[in-house]
Write a structure and sequence with these properties.
Bound molecules: pyridoxal-5'-phosphate
Radius of gyration: 19 Å
InterPro entries: ACCD_DCysDesulf, TrpB-like_PALP_sf
Structural class: alpha/beta
Largest sheet: 6 strands, mixed
CATH class of the largest domain: Alpha Beta
Helix content: 25-40%
CATH architecture of the largest domain: 3-Layer(aba) Sandwich
Number of helices: 12
Protein name: Pyridoxal-phosphate dependent enzyme
Shape: globular
Family: Belongs to the ACC deaminase/D-cysteine desulfhydrase family.
Order of helices and strands: EHEHEHEHEHHEHEHEHEHHEH
Strand order of the largest sheet: 1-2-10-7-8-9
Organism: Nitrincola tapanii
Number of domains: 2
CATH topology of the largest domain: Rossmann fold
Active site: 64
């Protein structure tokens, strides 16, 4: 990891000033070109010298940031990788699939019904029968080793005592669980903003399960917030926010970090952050995924009529 390439970026938008808060972004995406953001931590348990001899296998969608980073890690660490991909193979391989193949990842596309059974022992056995022994990394790296590795994110945060709220994009909740369990006695409150449009109690259960699976107790001091849009969906507001951030030198990915920023914006507009709050938003990487959504962003953004409350 290139820790000296991580930096803080101040988001000097009038909306924050109007509500009396400051927002900085911790550019963890700069940790590495390919194994960036939270992936640098989540995949660390398999990095040399702990890289196993047998292939690393994991799951994800065709545009999965996790599979992309795993393929890059496998190529760099000299271990073969398998990506079990949700859904039919696209008629022509898009940029992400091309990347995975170029980095040497072997792909197996499975229908959504079978994908839902990916955690079942019978499915694992059928995979073994087809491809031999492998080291399984659960979808999104949501396993104890990755969660514990995410505790180390704290050591990349400058001015540890300064932050009132730490905002983190959430998928499986593994990264957030690592941050929660690594928080220690710091006063910083954690806010996980999900890419999923499910209920807050369901999100809370996900995080508690991740903590329990990693053998960590729940010290409290955290909240979760669902996405306002279903997973992967985009609308004019998000597309405009994406373009505004990019124009100001903050590239975000539409599935995770853009939603985290949007969720924060909603909170602030609802007056839910006390005046004087110092907010730190983690940039968890995933920028490769932008390529899959750029055309839609460019189509949706000009059609957006509403005011952009920035
Ligand atoms: C860029 C980015 N940020 C955040 C997340 C969410 O991470 P987690 O699954 O640990 O909640 C992901 C998911 O893989 C991601 O790709």
């Amino acid at each position: 990891m290139q820790s000296d390439s991580v930096y803080l970026q101040r988001l000097s938008w009038p909306v924050w000033q109007k509500h009396g808060i400051t927002v900085d972004v911790l550019r963890l995406d700069r940790l590495d070109e390919l194994i960036s953001g939270n992936k640098a931590f989540k995949l660390q348990p398999w990095s040399p010298p702990n890289t196993p001899q047998r292939p690393l296998l994991s799951f994800g969608g065709a545009w999965s940031n996790h599979l992309h980073a795993l393929a890059a890690a496998g190529q760099r660490w000299g271990v073969s990788t398998w990506g079990i991909v949700r859904g039919e193979p696209p008629a022509t391989a898009h940029a992400a699939i091309q990347d995975l193949e170029r980095m040497g990842m072997q792909l197996m596309f499975i229908d959504r019904e079978t994908y839902r059974r990916r955690e079942e022992p019978a499915f694992r056995l059928s995979l073994q029968a087809q491809i031999g022994e492998f080291e399984l990394i659960p979808e999104g790296g949501n396993c104890p080793a990755s969660i514990l590795a995410c505790q180390q994110i704290w050591s990349f945060i400058p001015d540890q005592e300064k932050w009132d709220v730490l905002v983190c994009a959430m998928g499986t909740g593994a990264t957030l669980a690592g941050l929660i369990s690594g928080r220690g006695s710091r006063k910083t409150q954690l806010l996980g903003i999900s890419s999923l449009k499910i209920s807050t109690p369901e999100l809370e259960v996900m995080v508690r399960l991740a903590l329990a699976r990693a053998g960590q107790s729940d010290p409290g001091g955290w909240q979760v917030q669902p996405s306002t849009l279903r997973y992967g969906a985009l609308n004019g507001h998000l597309a405009s926010l994406f373009q505004r951030s990019e124009a100001l030198g903050l590239p975000l990915d539409p599935i995770y970090t853009l939603r985290a920023l949007d969720g924060l914006l909603h909170r602030v507009l609802a007056g839910e952050l006390p005046v004087g709050s110092k907010v730190l938003l983690l940039h968890t990487g995933g920028l490769q995924g932008v390529r899959g959504q750029r055309a839609r962003i460019e189509c949706l953004s000009p059609a957006f009529q509403g005011p952009m409350p920035l």
